[in-house]
Write a structure and sequence with these properties.
about 15% strand; alpha/beta; two-stranded parallel sheet; about 350 residues; Rossmann fold; globular; seven-stranded parallel beta sheet
Length: about 350
């Protein structure tokens, strides 16, 4: 099988590429604006990479869509600070550029596996979010943060319509707070733009106060990247067409933590590594308002718990990594290859 991954150097893209190249005979075509996370794969004969931009290298992309069996457009702006500060850029990349890829897949009869997001559920009141039943609830227009959720939801709807009206082969998957090695650069995170775990880890390592937005009572279900990739590989294999025309939540409801709990457990875990005990003991946690941290256009989601009954039933998938084990593997990656910073 030939797999085209746009955004191959990203968190999901590089982890998926590693799994494909180490466990299957498949070929991977990849495009991204950088290659620091995938350097080890560049000599591999089954991996072909172009350092380029989804909005510029359109001919290369169309050529490789034609050659591929399945297309994964993983390129997106997926950080809350950007939703508020650059909402039009979010829409242009996350919707308009990706819509072009979807149309290419339809034109050439290719299967598309598209990354939706847990954020499409918005402020859904359900205890657990169900892919085919839960309402998708958003705030007022003046809260720009919802442009990401709306862009993703609209593309979900377009893909669904193209599948049912025009025969586009598709699967949508919704990651719930995936984390693990290669999540972000902990040396230079962008406040409000990096994922919460790596932002907090940077703050611990460099003596910067951890900022809990509105007290950190928001809850998230943290899913280890390798569990997520297990589900994604099952979707790609698509045995007996089980994933065809479906939407799947890929998340770990057993790892439901508040952001405040995440900060505490991360500080404790860092302190277990030799040489990092003094760093962890000096970690400071403060509370800030969402307005101060993100701006007036932000609105938070208090809880986000997936139902994975459908993934369990149709794919035979469920997460197997508990949070502490996943956190240890993540911290091993970030801490064991570096020297403890001076306090």
């Amino acid at each position: 099988m030939r797999v085209l991954i746009l955004g191959v150097n990203g968190f999901i893209g590089n982890a998926l590429t590693r799994r494909i190249l180490t466990t299957t005979p498949w070929e991977v075509y990849g495009l991204d604006v950088a290659s620091d996370r995938i350097e080890e794969f560049l000599p591999e004969r089954r991996f072909r990479f172009l350092e380029g931009d989804i909005g510029i290298n359109k001919e290369w992309i169309e050529y490789h869509v034609k050659k591929a069996d399945v297309v994964l457009p993983l390129v997106a702006i997926a950080t809350p600070a950007a939703y508020v500060k650059s909402p039009l850029a979010v829409f242009e990349l996350d919707f308009e550029e990706n819509l072009r890829i979807v149309k290419m897949a339809a034109k050439y009869g290719k299967r598309i596996v598209f990354p939706s997001t847990s954020e499409v559920y918005g402020m859904c009141p359900d205890k657990e979010f169900e892919e085919d039943a839960s309402p998708l609830v958003y705030g007022p227009i003046r809260k720009e943060r919802w442009i990401y959720s709306c862009s993703k939801q609209l593309l979900d709807r377009v893909i669904w319509a193209m599948g049912h009206a025009h025969g586009l082969r598709f699967t949508l998957f919704r990651p719930f707070n995936w984390y693990g090695p290669h999540l972000d650069n902990v040396e230079a995170p962008k406040e409000g733009s990096s994922r919460v775990l790596t932002q907090f880890l940077h703050n611990i390592l460099y003596g910067v106060p951890i900022k809990l937005v509105d007290g950190g009572d928001q809850r998230r279900c943290f899913t280890f990247i390798e569990d997520g990739i297990d589900g994604l590989m099952t979707i790609l294999k698509n045995e007996n067409g089980a994933a065809e025309g479906q939407i799947f939540n890929l998340g770990n409801a057993a790892a439901d933590l508040s952001i405040k709990e995440l900060a505490t457990r991360l500080i404790d875990a860092v302190g277990q590594y030799p040489g990092y005990d003094s760093v962890a003991s000096r970690a400071e946690v403060v509370t800030v308002t969402s307005t101060d941290y993100y701006g007036e256009g932000y609105q938070d989601i208090t809880t986000r718990v997936p139902s994975i009954e459908k993934a369990r039933r149709l794919l035979g998938w469920e997460p197997t990594t508990d949070f502490d084990s996943g956190l240890k593997q993540t911290l091993d990656f970030y801490l064991l290859t570096r020297n403890p910073p001076a306090v």
